[in-house]
Amino acid sequence: MDSERPDEKEGQPKAGNGAPQKPADPNDPEGIKSLLRAASGVPAGSRKAVPAETTAAATTEEGGRASTADFISKTRKQGLALKDRAIQEAETYKDPQQTQLWKSIFRVSHDRSDPRNRSLAILSNVFLHLHPAKINRDAVRYGFTWGMGGITFYLFIVLTFTGVLLMFYYHPTKVQAFRDILYLEHDVPFGKLLRNMHRWAAHLMVITTWLHMFRVVLTGSYKRPREFNWCVGVVLLVLTLLLSFTGYLLPDDQLGFWAVTVGTNMARATPMFGSEGPFGPQLGMTPYNDVRFGLLGGSIVDANALLRSYIWHCIGIPLVASIFMAVHFWRIRKDGGISGPAPVMLEAEMKATKK
Amino acid sequence: MDWHQLWKITSAPDNVPIVGMLFLVPFFTWYGLKQARENDKLIAELENDPAKAKTHHRKTLPWRPGWARELHVWPFLVRVEFLAAVIVTAILFIWSITLDAPLEEPANPNLTMNPSKAPWYFLGLQEMLVYFDPWIAGVVMPSLMMVGLMVFPYVDSNPLGNGYYTIRQRRFALAMFGIGWVTWIILIVIGTFIRGPGWVWFWPGQTWDHNAVVFDKNQDLHDVFGITHANFGDAAIWMQIIFGAMVVGLFYLLAGLFLHWLMKRGPLKLKYLRSWRELKQWATTPDRLETSLLARTSVLQYLTFQFFAISVLIALPVKILLRLAFTIKYVWVTPWFNV
Predict the structure, then answer these.
(1) Residues of A in contact with B116 (CB under 8 A)
(2) Do B121 and A244 touch (CB under 8 A)?
(3) Which of A37, A38, A97, A298 has its Cα between 20 and 30 A from that of A28?
(4) Is the CB of A190 inside 8 Å of chain B's CB atoms?
């Protein structure tokens, strides 16, 4: 398939610029020989004459000097031949796509005029292979999907990237957490930008998740056969909100502290599992064993809560969310790809219900 | 008018996203409904002309015979995705350079922030605390909302409108989603822009008064009906429990009847509001499409929908109204829980 590249035939003669006019295949032994001949300036067919000449010189009185000169000229010839061979070879590297290295990484030619290559570009790429090779011609329109699902996933990647960088500068301890934020903001190069980006990408992700759901509702995309994927999406919404909420405490400032205090105080009122919830006290719930205690690792928002928040935020929830995302994306394909824009269905075409 | 106060609220860095949402949500609502209107026009046209419906490509988007129905993802989709990623990155960079993430004083358990607000996307829940006890507002309601969302595809028995924007074919489902979505946004807006210190109601532009004291009557529904200790002595507590249970039961019944009635309504046109006779006819004549959709719904689907719709979509606005307009705190008071 690679040899069918049209530019290959045009490119090759041009490659001979400044080198011997007749390009020779380096792998061809005959070619090497002709190269050697060209380099030594000896015409083909007079090969026998060369050793005869040297033996004649060796019979004169200074035999040792002659053999040295012989050696030098031989080496020189070989060196020149090698040089030319290298130049020859280098010409072939002018097209990197023809190298073994390239071909070992990219199995597919980048010549996209061939429809087969376009499909293979998607199917043989691990990052792109979740796409189908072809889609509904109207589905690429921005107006239908608004791109919100994809943007949400992209923001998750941005958040993972900036989040990992932030982790290098952050200790989830009461002594250091707040100081680490100050350090990030004032001393770490681009630290402030890093933190800002993480913060705003998180807010944006909540917005894009909502808008994505809104679009799915408006287009009725949750309907059969995509009901289950909608449920997975609802779980992902909850996980997105929880990720945001657990991150809120981490700067260990007044804003996060009181927001989390207010938030977890609600957990105290959980029916049956909270110390202040309906039927909680009757079931033996106290501030030291109820669901809030489990969330905070204590009865107040303190060091343990900070650590738990941190681990949920950086490891626990992202891990769970990744699994749900994998299912979500997989199911999009398995349920028949993007739901539309589908041809409109008319009332008269509704099938009778199964009784 | 305290513009400074208003500016302080809207420009708080963590509130900027919701200010953005005030533009984004209406824009995308308009954008989606615009496409829905176009599709609805096409649907009406094809329904009146069955011959055309047989040959039409059934989309408002351009189509010519001979055009490929499918496009290669490379490059036609990946380039859109790439462009989206570049634009989002650019927006994020500009946003991050121009606006700093908030950082308050170090956490101090001895100094309570007032008002102490959750992040904006949780302000709907926090605002709900005004209307319900924490076990409902913080635990039961959010769970019902999430489970209700998950249940929706299974109770929506309407096969129409799958994969294209339409209002005409999915009026009731969209109305239900709409109620939930709008209520949620309104709660967030109230929580962000209106609640001040002590979670007191301050109109936008009103100065936050940290010493504001609100004289609320804070009465329960049984007080309004005179079922109090003063009137009935120790028996009042049992009467209150029974009264509250009856009120809640009656609410579920009435809300269920209301939803059942609403389910079969046709499109409500503005001109009906001008003519009493037309409005009455709308209210009493079941719509053909809606009736046929209801006939497709199984009993389990119907009851599940009713439960979630009454418990969340109707109960929430009703309780907000009772609390804000009639200063009623609880409708059902028991020694164990209050609703």
Answers:
(1) 258-259, 261-262
(2) yes
(3) A97
(4) no
- CB count within 10 Å of CB A7 equals 10
Distance CA A299, CA B215 (A): 33
Contacts of A231 in chain B (CB under 8 A): 150, 153
From residue B212, alpha-carbon distances to A291, B97, B199, B236, B324 in Å are: 35, 38, 10, 35, 18
The answer to whether the bond into A43 is cis (omega within 30° of 0) is no
Q: What are the chain A neighbours of B50 within 8 Å (beta carbons)?
A: 348
Q: Give CA–CA dist B333/B338, Å, rounded.
A: 5
- Interface confidence, given as ipTM, is 0.92
In order along its 339 residues, chain B shows pLDDT tens digits of 788 888 888 888 888 888 888 899 999 999 999 999 999 999 999 999 999 888 888 999 988 888 888 999 988 999 999 999 999 999 999 999 999 999 989 999 898 888 888 888 888 888 998 899 888 988 899 999 999 999 999 999 999 999 999 999 999 999 999 999 999 989 998 998 899 888 888 888 888 888 887 777 778 898 888 888 888 888 888 999 999 999 999 999 999 999 999 999 888 888 888 888 888 888 888 988 899 999 999 999 999 999 999 999 999 999 999 988 888 889 998 888 888
- All domains in chain A, ordered by first residue: 17-94 (no CATH), 95-134 (no CATH), 142-341 (1.20.810.10)
Measured between CB atoms, which of A137, A300, A301 is closest to B71?
Answer: A137
